[in-house]
User: Fold this.
Amino acid sequence: MEASTQFAVTLLFVFLFYSIRGLDSATFTIVNKCSYPVWPGILSGAGTAQLTTTGFALESGETNVIAVPTAWSGRIWGRTLCSTDSTGIFSCATGDCGSSKVECTGSGAVPPATLAEFTLNGAGGMDFYDVSLVDGYNLPMTIEPRGGGGNCTTTGCTVDLNEACPTELKLKVKIAVEGEESGEKSVACKSACEAFGDPLYCCSGAYATPQTCRPSAYAQYFKNACPRAYSYAYDDGTSTFTCSSADYVITFCSAPSKSKLIKSGGSGKFPFGVDIWAGRGNGQGDESTTKMMIMALVIGAVLTMIL
Assistant:
């Protein structure tokens, strides 16, 4: 009897040890404070496995919590003015990933798009993160570390740049605007590289080094509006931040949004029924919750054996 009790206790501790290690992950809380729906997209970096979800829908005021492996790298962005056409093809006016579905399935954002970029557990065990406007801008976005160690600075861009964007950089589409007649509206702000294709603006060719690539007047426009966000390719010094062992809150429109965007073509319907890992859409719980439930069941069984 004593031997079986000792074995049961050992089994319990071994299970707890490996279960806790399995829960060793960062938590990304993605929040939509915009006054309109946003469809976040997620792309894992090269050599990093795609997460269980690569795209989902967030109505205004909604939140989705995702567990992310601690060695993960990748980017998160928001898609806007999305709709599903009569043939079932899903597309977005900004940030579209070209998958024709809510899930991006390994495809990145078509510029212009505001990007939240992460390398977790990188050099020295630190997390590196930034909000980038190098590929243009479509949404206000912030990253806020929670519970980490080090210089865990909140970064991002809280300003709505779409209307104030220089005319030559504006991305305009025909949309319905609440209380107004349908017409063209600026829904995103291109980078100078995308707008003109000049190596001078793209930091390519003869301008592909920190010494030859300098911030243009267009990059300075983004920098003045959002001092902590990346404005051009070599803007590391004022735009990359570090933290260790933190969770992160990624918020769209963290400042109150005055936008009245409604839809852009298609049915304009919100695509319900998508498979969202954190629980909405198909009734599933997130991975950490499932593991905790399994752990509780095993602990109960082991304690029954002991008693």
